Amino acid sequence: MIDHAIAELTPLIGVRHACAATGRAPASYYRAHPKQVGRQDVSPTIPEAGPADTSARESTQPRALSNAERARVLEVLNSQRFADMAPAQVYATLLDEGVYLCSESTMYRILREKNQTGDRRRQATHPPKVKPELVADQPNSVWSWDITKLHGPAKWTYYYLYVILDIYSRYVVGWMIASRESKTLAERLIAETIREQNIGGDQLTLHADRGSSMTSKPVALLLADLGVTRSHSRPHVSNDNPFSESQFKTMKYRPDFPGRFDSIEAARLHGKEFFDWYNFEHRHSGIGLHTAADVHYGRATEVRRRRGIVLDAAYAAHPERFVRNPPEPPALPTTTWINKPPAEEENPTP
């Protein structure tokens, strides 16, 4: 009889409260009715007053992308053209083509929701260094150069990639792949690059590490004859040449970079394809997501103006999607440093 009453009350107040109302121990009831364990054991509850459901509120935000728009963004990010590119690169490339889908941060958010962000290369951090201290405020004022090894077809065979880079524009002004590291070849490449870029006397500083080719007498004499200032990293401090190191890292972490090259001709062909991409297609985060060529040859201001037109149109169409301020294209830095001094040393008190 009591169990029958509990069975009738259970749908209304739950097993535990029904047992309490009838004086029956819950454990005894469960032993007699084992199928009830785990079923109908929670009393119906009245929702407590509290903050509104934020997920529901957020899902109806007027500035949010529609499901169709989000699907379109994901489709573009996963397309063959953009699958190997970071959202920042996709954002800048589309912007230059007059297309605005969403902000860069929204692209990251959509990828994160789909667990498609992937691993990001860990960036090394180093304590600030004070020497050498070089600053560039325009192209062709400070160049950085270095040599790296490329694996040949067999073990212990290498080709040598020489690269000269403008630190302000990130433009590779000269490069060469040779079968050996040679101070004579280095001298020739530097001379040809200076001539091609129309460098005048006392205009340029050339920075490098302390490798044998970099500190060689032929290179030193050439630079002295041309009025080019020499600068070298401190011994055993690789971060004194960060722009060359970063460029080599970009090259070797590209998806199409081979582990080995079958021949020096294959290495040179790959080099040409890479440096064409690096100079004319890759949007560099350090220069306002511009291409190196646009910055080096003075086209970045016009590119930024056109980007602004695209963003202004996007803001006019959906101002509710830009909460803080109207969007602006990334600005081009006014100066680029190798080992920028601390603020207190840069602006000493009188």
UniProtKB/TrEMBL annotation:
Q: Where are the transmembrane segments?
A: none
Q: Which residues form a coiled coil?
A: none
Keywords in alphabetical order, please. Plasmid
Q: Which domain of life is it from?
A: Bacteria
What SUPFAM superfamilies does UniProt report for this protein, alphabetically?
Ribonuclease H-like
Disordered: region residues: 33-65, 321-350
| All copies of domain Integrase catalytic, residue ranges | 135-299
The protein's matches in InterPro entries, at most eight in alphabetical order, are given as:
Integrase_cat-core, RNaseH-like_sf, RNaseH_sf, Transpos_IS3, Transposase_IS3/IS150/IS904
Report a single Gene Ontology molecular function. Answer: nucleic acid binding
Q: Which NCBIfam families match?
A: transpos_IS3
Protein name listed in UniProt: IS3 family transposase
| Species per Swiss-Prot/TrEMBL record | Rhodococcus opacus
